Amino acid sequence: MRETKQSAGLALAIVLLATSLPAAPEPTPTPVGPMKILEYFDNDSLPPGPRPDGAIYTFVDSADPSVSLLSRYGSKVIEDIGGKLVNETTKELATKETRQVVSELHLKGMELPKQVIGRPKVTAVKRTSLMLRDPRNAPDGADMAALKRIRAQLIAGDAPDKVIVQKIEMPGKPLEWRVYRPIAASKSCLACHGDPAKFSPGVKEALDRLYPEDKAVDYSAQDWRGIIRVTLEPLPETK
Ligand code: HEC
Q: pLDDT tens across 98-150, in order?
């Protein structure tokens, strides 16, 4: 059985969480082989373009000078958060039984990054995925558009965007800017997101109890796990 078991996810050629890996040259994109099609959770029936609520989600080239500060700063904030997530996971796993750690992850009580003068203000941080553990992390329509974009890139065998910048227009609301980065599962993540048959004692039970609708399992190392997103308020001149 083991040999035929397919990975739940899509290999993420470009790894976000460099902190979890020894310093190495950037991995060359690996071809994406046959794969299980991921399951969607919500919003999948929404048509592209303007949404029923009138919202329009547009991806803006992250290299465009008008969004470069937003893109670079958002990207850095996400990298910090990704680093924290990995460090916390590593530390918790090293000091406690995995089954105890289940109720403690991830980044509970994390505060929004403090505003830095001359930098966009971070107004929201989110982690989401096409295979969710906690339904409270469910993607909204704009998150879903970003998830689908990365998914399509991986399925096509292309290197996924390292950074996605998105503009959201909604009638009667100020323009919203988001930055997304894909996040990969590393080996340590598999203790709770890998093959449940290989979990250490009590982990499956703890997950079943806390997350009865858990879909975030059966990942392999380097699979694309999801995205980290920040919402940013640009500086006045970049508006
Ligand atoms: C000890 C168990 C455990 C380990 C190890 C673990 N996770 Fe999680 N993960 C969870 C739990 C519990 C949740 C749901 C609560 C939450 O959102 O933080 C979760 C949720 C997530 C989410 C949010 C999306 C969702 O499915 O709800 C992401 C992204 C994620 N994990 C990534 C990772 C990554 C990357 C690693 C490895 C660095 C990792 N996890 C390791 C237990 C774990």
A: 999 999 999 988 888 888 889 999 999 999 999 999 999 999 889 999 999 99
The rounded Å distance from CA 101 to ligand 1 centre is 10
CA distance 229 to 77: 9
Helix (H) or strand (E) holding 233: strand 224-233
CB-defined site of ligand 1, < 6 Å: 85-86, 89, 93, 98, 101-102, 105-106, 127-129, 132-134, 137, 183, 185-186, 188-189, 191-193, 216, 225-226
φ, ψ dihedrals at 197, nearest 5°: -65, -20
Cut 0.90: pTM above it: no
The tens digit of pLDDT for each residue in 194-234 reads 999 999 999 999 999 999 999 999 999 989 999 999 999 98
Q: Are 142 and 55 in contact (CB under 8 A)?
A: yes
Residue 137 CA, closest ligand 1 atom number: 27
Where in the chain are the domains?
2-19+32-238
| Nearest CA-CA partner of 235 in 62, 57, 59, 116 | 116
